[in-house]
């Protein structure tokens, strides 16, 4: 580890202590970065100082610091109140309610909200941006409700009340008259009344170039996504027609989807129970046919808590303790009917494949140094985690469909144990042939949605088309309802960060091209994907370059098991960090 890497690491402890706590630095559990103007100005100066020290040949550090600098240039209110649910949820998951620690955190969160109120004083924001902030207010109040129910500590309850008052002040500062629960119809009416523009036209090009390391312009991204829709839309429509005949319904993607979601055993309210039941069989099949899974993989599947549901309408993944010897992950599955919960066998499998064997495995394989040697900067939090992990997880869905198609061409007499178990599993859900068709429909539907995210993100943030007009265009172009598209782009992704919605398809399609020479070779696919989700979260251009180099070497050599030296290298990083922290 270089001195520059150590200094960046120490800087991250200052500006993002809660993320570092979730990564395993327990000593930062009671520290919060207060979002005052003074602190943000300091952070921006410090980034500049670090950037001046980066050697010209250290592209990884250059791009990492550019991404951090871009975050501090983003001046919207949502994240400033989102810190409440982000911080408290991490602690609830990791350690439950510890009154002494929560009292300290609540005091700091109150100070941070007060500093934000002062910083935003006199600033005007479009209604759409204020609505995104209101979604975060819902999450803050939901988690404070949970904390209040879990404790009888009088002092803690008083601090909860104080913080709730500041959150209410925040809500009033960014008030959108008529906003209550953030349901689709309500928000659509509000956007029609107050205007749908986001006002990000000047910031958005900076996000793409410096935040996410894209080389494309908004217009180029839009053109690419339009071409991808042109390729995959006929495949979705063909699956819709076939399923409509089986289900005896109109050949409309929304009607077919509703039919699949209404089947007993796979309805949204049953999603968690069914997912837990099918998960072991799916995981064995994935590990054999798609991606190598490290032997210490440890993920827990849980229902999305109410305080996260407004910003996680379908599901999500979260990692913990990646800098320790006991990394673990959470796969959140949303069941709230006001959001966009999954339903139907194919939808549940698709979400499981994306969140667990995409994101969660990416976190775990990286933490264990399973098939690559991630450096310190590729482990630290940044926007680059979006481009790498979302792209990888998006492509994992198509890899799963391709694996099922290979299985469909295979004689049952040649099935492996994992394949036989998977085929047997499908019998109670309609059989292998029908579930394959359902998974093809859901996979291509999700691909169309991700391509729409790119187009919507590009058009809306560059000012080319507003959200309302985009929703109408998307429905007419693809047959997917405005409600479906809305929950896939607005509160969930535009609320995370401008440009985030593009991460899935752009990098996923890049990985797809790299994999093409061995897409039907399970052994090489497993090794390639193990490498891809073991190398951390570097900038997009660095990630893509390493994948191309590895794919080329894979085509020219025999497949080998992950080297033990990689695991030893990962342990060396942990020991170095531990020694640094003790100093």
Write the layout of secondary structure elements.
Layout: H1 3-15, H2 17-22, H3 37-53, H4 59-73, H5 78-95, H6 99-119, H7 127-150, H8 154-173, H9 184-194, H10 204-211, H11 218-247, H12 253-261, H13 271-289, E1 299-303, E2 315-320, E3 328-333, H14 345-368, H15 384-408, H16 417-426, H17 432-462, H18 467-478, H19 482-494, H20 503-515, H21 522-532, H22 540-555, H23 564-582
Parallel strand pairs: 1-3
Antiparallel strand pairs: 2-3
Helix pairs in contact: 1-3, 3-4, 4-10, 5-6, 5-7, 6-8, 7-8, 11-17, 13-14, 13-16, 14-15, 14-17, 15-17, 15-20, 17-18, 17-19, 17-20, 18-19, 20-22, 21-22
Structure explained in plain terms:
With 583 residues, this protein is mostly helical. It has two domains: 3-209, no CATH class; 212-555, no CATH class. It is built from 23 helices and three strands. The model has no long low-confidence stretch (mean pLDDT 94).
Low-confidence stretches: none
Structural class: mainly alpha
- Count structural domains: 2
- How many DSSP helices? 23
User: How far is the N terminus from the C terminus?
Assistant: 15 Å
Largest sheet: 3 strands, mixed
Q: What pattern of helices and strands is seen along the backbone? A: HHHHHHHHHHHHHEEEHHHHHHHHHH
Number of strands: 3
Features of this protein?
single chain, 583 residues, mainly alpha, 2 domains, 3-stranded mixed β-sheet, 23 helices, globular
């Amino acid at each position: 580890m270089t001195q520059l890497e150590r200094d960046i690491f120490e800087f991250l402890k200052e500006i993002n202590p809660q993320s570092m706590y979730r990564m395993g630095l327990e000593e930062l559990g009671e520290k919060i970065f207060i979002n005052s103007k003074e602190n943000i100005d300091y952070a921006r100066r410090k980034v500049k100082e670090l950037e001046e020290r980066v050697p010209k040949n250290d592209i990884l550090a250059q791009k990492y610091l550019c991404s951090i600098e871009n975050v501090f240039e983003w001046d919207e209110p949502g994240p400033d109140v989102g810190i409440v649910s982000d911080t408290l949820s991490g602690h609830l998951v990791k350690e439950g309610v510890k009154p002494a620690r929560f009292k300290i955190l609540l005091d700091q969160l109150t100070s941070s909200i007060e500093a934000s109120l002062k910083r935003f004083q006199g600033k005007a924001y479009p209604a759409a941006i204020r609505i995104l902030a209101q979604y975060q207010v819902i999450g803050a109040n939901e988690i404070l409700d949970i904390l209040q129910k879990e404790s009888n500590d009088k002092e803690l309850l008083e601090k909860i009340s104080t913080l709730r008052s500041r959150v209410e002040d925040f809500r009033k500062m960014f008030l959108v008259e008529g906003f209550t629960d953030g349901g689709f119809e309500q928000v659509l009416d509000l956007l029609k009344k107050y205007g749908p523009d986001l006002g990000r036209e000047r910031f958005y090009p900076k996000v793409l170039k410096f935040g996410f390391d894209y080389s494309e312009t908004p217009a180029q991204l839009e053109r690419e996504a339009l071409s991808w829709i042109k390729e995959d839309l006929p495949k979705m429509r063909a699956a819709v027609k076939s399923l409509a005949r089986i289900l005896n319904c109109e050949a409309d993607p929304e009607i077919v989807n509703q039919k699949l979601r209404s089947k007993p055993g796979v309805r949204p309210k049953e999603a968690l129970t069914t997912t837990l039941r099918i998960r072991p069989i799916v995981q064995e099949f994935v590990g054999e046919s798609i991606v190598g899974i490290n032997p210490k993989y440890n993920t827990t599947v849980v229902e999305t808590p109410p305080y996260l549901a407004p910003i996680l309408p379908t599901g999500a993944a979260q990692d913990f303790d990646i800098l320790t010897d006991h990394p673990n992950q959470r796969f959140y599955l949303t069941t709230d009917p006001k959001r966009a919960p999954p339903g139907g066998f194919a939808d549940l499998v698709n979400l499981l494949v994306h969140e667990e064997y995409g994101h969660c495995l990416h976190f775990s394989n990286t933490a264990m140094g399973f098939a690559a040697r991630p450096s310190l900067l590729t482990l630290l939090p940044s926007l680059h985690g979006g481009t790498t992990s979302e792209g990888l997880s998006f492509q994992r869905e198509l890899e799963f469909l391709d694996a099922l198609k290979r299985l469909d061409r295979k004689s049952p007499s040649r099935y492996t144990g994992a394949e036989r178990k998977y085929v047997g599993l499908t019998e109670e859900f309609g059989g292998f042939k029908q579930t394959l068709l359902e998974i093809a429909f859901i996979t291509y539907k999700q691909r169309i949605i991700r391509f729409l995210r790119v187009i919507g993100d590009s058009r809306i943030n560059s000012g080319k088309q507003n959200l309302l007009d985009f929703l109408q265009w998307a429905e007419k172009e693809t047959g997917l309802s405005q409600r479906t598209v809305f929950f896939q782009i607005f509160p969930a992704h535009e609320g995370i960060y401008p440009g985030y919605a593009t991460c899935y398809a752009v990098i996923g399609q890049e990985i797809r091209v790299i994999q093409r020479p061995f897409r039907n070779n399970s052994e090489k696919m497993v090794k390639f994907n193990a490498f891809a989700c073991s190398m951390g979260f570097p900038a997009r251009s660095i990630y893509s370059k390493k994948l191309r180099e590895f794919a080329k070497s894979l085509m020219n050599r025999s497949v080998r098991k992950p080297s033990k030296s990689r695991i030893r290298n990962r342990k060396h990083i942990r020991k170095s960090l531990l020694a640094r922290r003790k100093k």
